[in-house]
Design a protein that fits this description.
Its EC number is 3.6.1.55. It is built from two helices and eight strands. By secondary structure, the protein is an alpha+beta fold. The chain binds 8-OXO-2'-deoxyguanosine-5'-triphosphate (8DG). 8-OXO-2'-deoxyguanosine-5'-triphosphate binds at residues 13, 15, 39, 44-45, 47-49, 89, 93, 112, 130, 132-133.
Length: 145
């Protein structure tokens, strides 16, 4: 039996680094989780698990619509350290992350979050990010002016 390449056996999660602009971003949208208890209070990027039959992009549009009530356009993918370009979340999940921009609606903590914050470069680490997000935030920081 062959072992799958590192990363591919992990459950697929998608996340949106929602920025105020894809051209000259100055702010990132952070969301505070309400569930499960072990993660509640931690800050993350909107997103979630890819459902069967969905592409990762479809899953991200669905999650952002459900969680924030907005439509987004996706920009580039943020390359992660796994061989397939995803970001490890602990041992069992791997997240594909896109830059994104709101195209319709005003983000609100409709589902899975109880607070949203737009963070600028100077206060990007002012919230307790979920630990797995920190390397991703480090990369997002390089996009903010
Ligand atoms: N959405 C999201 N999940 C993250 C981030 N960082 C991080 O470690 N995670 C973890 C938390 C969860 O264990 C997992 C994603 O699952 P989720 O609970 O958001 O997925 P979901 O909305 O589809 O939830 P469900 O089907 O379990 O109800 O990834 C992040 O930035 N965004």
């Amino acid at each position: 039996m062959t072992t799958p390449p590192e990363g591919t056996a992990r459950t697929a999660v998608v996340g949106a680094a929602v920025l105020d602009s894809l051209v000259r971003p100055t702010r990132l949208l952070a969301a505070r989780r309400t569930e499960p208890p072990a993660l509640a209070g931690g800050w993350e990027m909107p997103g979630g698990k890819v459902d069967p039959g969905e592409t990762p992009e479809q899953a991200l549009h669905r999650e952002v619509r459900e969680e924030l009530g907005v439509e987004v356009e996706l920009g580039e993918r943020l390359p992660g350290p796994l061989p397939d370009g995803r970001w490890p979340l602990g041992e069992t999940f791997a997240m594909t992350v896109w830059l994104a921009r709101v195209t319709a609606g005003e983000p609100a903590p409709i589902e899975d979050h109880d607070q949203l914050r737009w963070l600028e470069a100077h206060d990007l680490y002012a919230v307790p990010w979920l630990p797995a997000d920190l390397p991703i935030i480090d990369l997002v920081a390089t996009y903010l002016t």
